[in-house]
Amino acid sequence: MRSRPLPPALRGRPFDVGAADRAGVSRERLRRHDLERPTRSIRWSSTAPPQGIARIRAFRPVLLPGQFVSHTSAARLWELPLPREHQDDDRVHVTSVRPAAPMRRMNVVGHRADPERAEVRQRWGMPASTPASMWVECGALLELDDLVVLGDAVVTSSACRTGVEELRRVLALHGSCRGARRLRAALDLVRVGAGSPQETRCRLVIVRAGLPEPQLQVDVHDEHGFFVGRVDMAWPEHRVVLEYEGDHHRTGPDQWAADIRRYRELERLGWTVLRWTRTDLTVHRSAALAHLAALLGRSA
Prior knowledge:
Layout: E1 15-16, H1 17-22, H2 27-30, E2 35-36, E3 42-45, H3 52-57, E4 67-69, H4 71-77, H5 84-87, E5 92-97, E6 108-113, E7 120-123, E8 126-129, H6 131-137, H7 144-156, H8 164-174, H9 180-187, H10 197-208, E9 215-221, E10 227-235, E11 240-244, H11 247-251, H12 253-268, E12 272-276, H13 285-296
Parallel strand pairs: 5-6, 11-12
Antiparallel strand pairs: 1-3, 2-3, 4-5, 7-8, 9-10, 10-11
Helix pairs in contact: 4-6, 6-8, 7-9, 7-10, 8-9
């Protein structure tokens, strides 16, 4: 037997049992197979479950006062980069302020925090860890380079409105928390201006090879002072530019054409343009670094 359609107000979105009660939906209807129960009292369509931020926001009705989204779930709310294994983890991290107990629910990872360490801002209608607090929380979950990638994104994002000194303050506030040593090492490597996770990884490869650290997001002008473009990384004293090219450069025809024109003008002005891809960070790393080192007059 086909299930009775839900009221229009509940169709195509997650909802809680209370909203179903107010809409006159019976408990028997909520047990039908076209609805999924991700956690107690929450329902959504079993054929079109919410993804990403919408999935996290679906848990808003079950948050009690003093509870907020944290850790990697807060990173997703702030639209910050995470490694693949955490992108694919659909569990929601929720922190409760002591003395409250951690939340214990299906598809929820519960944590607790002392009141003086719980720093919260609203994001997409959800109480969430501030970007700096979220970064420190992730110290227990992420590896060093992933923390640098996340930290670069935090201090570069206009939405986060967070600087390196704020990361430092919150890390000091948390003292000897889990992952503190890794976080301190990552903080020394965090920089403003990284345009993507792979740009951060490029910079780390270069610095660890003993080469000079590049400047990030450098504006280049022509001999008349007209703006030519902004480049990912540059060593202006050597007139060397390094651009990391992800798939969007290759698959977007407008982007590709704009890049070609910009590179042509940079070369006319005497800049050497290096274009790295994913394999230059992996199988061709030694050759890419040797080429860069030669241009900088250094040995890698």
